[in-house]
Amino acid sequence: MAVIMKVDFPHKEVWGKEMAVQMKELAQSIVNEPGFIWKFWTENKNEEIAGGVYMFDSRENAENYLKMHTNRLMKFGYSDIRGKVFEINEELSSICKAPL
């Protein structure tokens, strides 16, 4: 059963197009992760927070990715990384036009 994962962390570096250029290789690597379906990259420059909302094919794959990604972010110098995995109510999500 597919799950959604939300990750965010304090970020003060680059935003928008500059972030897209700097993170392109990382984005290309994410699509090869086991069980990965899609990701929305998120950023809030005013609050200095970046992250993403992901869909994985299973809780196990999402949790494995979250563990690996948290460690990777810490190696990049990030801290206060918050990540959670959620089950999806597909019936209600479909009504609300979710990209299932």
Automatic annotation (TrEMBL):
Keywords: Monooxygenase, Oxidoreductase. It comes from the Bacteria. One of its GO terms (molecular function) is monooxygenase activity. Gene3D superfamilies: 3.30.70.100. This is Putative monooxygenase ydhR. It comes from Xanthomarina spongicola.
